[in-house]
Specification:
Blueprint (H helix, E strand, L loop, with lengths): L6 H12 L6 H10 L5 H14 L2 H17 L7 H17 L1 H28 L3 H7 L1
């Protein structure tokens, strides 16, 4: 048994705290609670893929946007192992085909801009982004 928390325990815990009042906060909390169950071989595979990619922005963007969508959209993972497995699949796709990685980078820029706009506007009005979009 490892003594220190794995990276996903820290990441999921951070997002669960930061987005504690998001509509999907319970889903984020579940990811944080189950992160210690991610098997070592899966963590090792993810670490190897991250090293192969050598693109911190791509990996960070993928993880962050997926967690934001867990918190604010209806994106669901049964537990942290399912999230990590899905991440492994996406990262393997980026390694296997540089065009997929390039497309993801462009998509992430668009999604980050959209979330920034939506959350900024929601903060101004003290309402959730989904409600703002439904009004138009």
């Amino acid at each position: 048994m490892r003594d220190e928390p794995n990276a996903f325990e820290k990441i999921f815990g951070h997002f669960a705290k930061r987005l504690h009042d998001a509509p999907g906060a319970a889903r984020l909390a579940r990811l944080a609670q189950t992160a210690k169950r991610i098997p070592e071989p899966l963590l090792d595979d993810l670490a190897a893929l991250i090293l192969q990619l050598d693109d911190v922005q791509l990996v960070d963007g993928d993880v962050a946007l997926n967690l934001i969508e867990v918190g604010f959209c209806d994106v669901r993972y049964t537990d942290a192992v399912a999230f990590a497995s899905a991440l492994k699949t996406r990262l393997q796709g980026y390694v296997d085909d540089p065009r997929v990685a390039s497309n993801a980078r462009g998509d992430f820029r668009d999604r980050v801009a959209w979330w920034h706009m939506a959350l900024s506007r929601a903060a101004e009005l003290c309402r959730w982004p989904a409600f703002l979009l439904m009004e138009k």
